[in-house]
Description:
The protein has two domains: 6-85; 121-227, CATH 3.30.1330.60. It is built from five helices and two strands; from the N terminus they run ααββααα. 71% of the residues lie in helices and 5% in strands. A two-stranded antiparallel sheet has the order 1-2. By secondary structure, the chain is mostly helical.
Amino acid sequence: MQRSGILSLAALSVIFASCGTSKKLQEAGMRYSRLDSTYRISQADLASSRDSTTKYKSLSEQLAAQLKEKNASNDQMVNQLKDLSVISGSQAESIKKSLENIGNKDAYIQNLQSAIARKDSLTMNLVMNLKGALGNLNDQDINIKVDKGVVYIDISDKLLFSTGKYEVTPSAKSVLGKVATVLVNQPDIEFMVEGHTDNVPYRQGVLLDNWDLSVKRATAVVRILQTE
């Protein structure tokens, strides 16, 4: 009975040992599979890198050839320019002056374009400032417009003056004061005041006629712009 028990224990040990070995083999197989997969991916990456290297090398050789050809072309052009010494001195001077004139014309055009752009910028800035200062007025009382680069401020004669008068009304003084503030802040702007009159013939007082009234109205506006 005792011997039989020993044999059973031995058989059980063999079974446990067999199970442990099988598990280790399975783990080893999985590691091998992962390593094999990694190896194959590495081989593919290496092959792709070699292809890219070959392509870059070919492209580099092409660019080098193009650069060499361009340098040769430049050398040829320089040699041709050197050969220009065979022409007369007057012809060479004429060519030089022509090139200088072209450069001067280009510079003039650029300066002109810059001046136009600057004027347009000043004009738009003036319009925006005027509209901002006078934005609360009725459109029928004042109109700001731009025509051929000139800013026009049309103020209704009803707002500025009473009929047949050239004294500026109190409400108009406030408006002209705002206009004056905008003009003072933009000293590069030149402005001109044009007088206007109503359609009622002037027949009394110290004024000769509506033309005289128009001049005095313009003068009154200028004085307000200077003092307000």
